[in-house]
Specification:
Length: 328
């Protein structure tokens, strides 16, 4: 069986990008040995308000379930409830070099947005993420395209560890979706849709049908009024086409053909809005039921226990290999 690990930060309200890039893939791995983590310790690499963080963590766990993850089949847990993550993270940080961390695109972007002081955790987030993945000896990590660089670093750190201390960690690969691997903001199609940088171009998983429709109607396009994919000259339309393709299962070419005779982007946007609303409606209904029910805590407690069994075993192996354990 393949081992799968992935996580999402409770750093904001989940977006359509998180769903199409990551969560929609999660549900395809339910027959594997899969771990899906709510990475709350990554969320605090930028300042978070305590009450909000707690609520978002719960909400994200409920969305994992609402998107179709079955806790009988996969392990769903909160990162801070399995201390081995932070323990292996320290080891991975010690193996990392400042230069390679400073070169990470996401670090540069996020640090650039913080005009005053930059939390050291922001720089250390990629080795922490490496620890999350390596703790489970994951084979594949379903993530959006923006995480490719961090996955590369994870492999580098695993290799470095294995080379210095003996074969210990498996080298994981990134598993990205076919379409919509990087959903862009509907207002600024050159900017990734992000839950921590939410604007009117961000579609949230919990947006009402009216809000979704309005955001899509107002999506930035171009004045050519011809529907075809061209990432360089038509980034707005290309983004909408990718979203349409990901949800409908049609290829971009099939969609272009479908609207060949249609004037303007109006009908295309109406249809896309209906697709997104149709995708979100059942998830939202399921989410409401979970939030109103009392199962969530038990699921998360059981998940943390199950995850810890595997994580502690692999942490100990790493500690033994590098001389941190008293005995071998
Ligand atoms: P933040 O702004 O706090 O970094 P985020 O929206 O980027 O939030 P993450 O928690 O960093 O979300 O990432 C969770 C998963 O969602 C990752 O697998 C990431 O690659 C994926 N993801 C995030 N944004 C997008 C996007 N716009 N398109 C496709 N996948 C995405
Ligand atoms: Mg992110």
């Amino acid at each position: 069986m393949t081992v799968i690990f992935s996580g999402i930060k409770p750093s904001g309200e989940l977006t359509l990008g998180n769903y199409l890039g990551a969560m929609a893939q999660f549900i395809t791995y339910q027959e594997e040995e899969a771990y899906f983590c709510i990475v709350n310790q990554h969320a605090i690499t930028v300042p978070q308000e305590a009450v909000e963080l707690r609520l978002r963590t719960r909400s994200l766990a409920a969305l994992y379930l609402a998107s179709g993850l079955d806790p009988q089949k996969v392990t769903i847990f909160i990162q801070s409830e399995v201390p081995a993550h932070a323990q292996l993270a320290w080891i991975m940080m010690s193996l990392s070099q400042m230069g390679e961390l400073e070169r990470m695109t996401q670090y540069k972007e996020k640090a650039g947005n913080l005009h005053e002081s930059i939390p050291a955790g922001l720089l250390m987030y990629p080795p922490f993420m490496a620890a999350d993945i390596l703790l489970y000896q994951a084979d594949a990590v379903p993530v959006g395209d923006d995480q490719q660089q961090h996955l590369e670093l994870t492999r580098t750190l695993a290799q470095r560890f294995n080379y210095r201390f003996g074969e210990t960690f498996k080298l994981p690969v990134a598993a990205t979706a076919k379409e919509a691997t990087r959903v862009m903001s509907l207002q600024d199609p050159l900017k990734k849709m992000s839950k921590s940088a939410e604007d009117s171009g961000t579609i949230l998983l919990l947006d009402s049908p009216a809000v979704v429709t309005k955001k899509i109607k107002r999506a930035v396009t171009d004045s050519e009024n011809k529907l075809y994919y061209d990432l360089v000259n038509k980034p707005g339309i290309s983004n909408l086409l990718s979203i349409y393709a990901a949800i409908s299962g049609l290829s971009v070419m099939e969609i272009e053909l479908k609207y060949q005779e249609v004037q303007g982007y109006g009908q295309f946007k109406v249809d896309l809005a209906a697709l997104v609303v149709g995708l979100l409606a059942p998830i939202q209904a399921h989410y409401e039921r979970i939030m109103a029910g009392s199962e969530l805590d038990d699921i998360l407690s059981a998940g943390a226990q199950r995850a810890a069994l595997v994580a502690n075993k692999n942490l100990l192996r790493a500690e033994e290999a590098m001389g941190l354990a008293r005995h071998k």
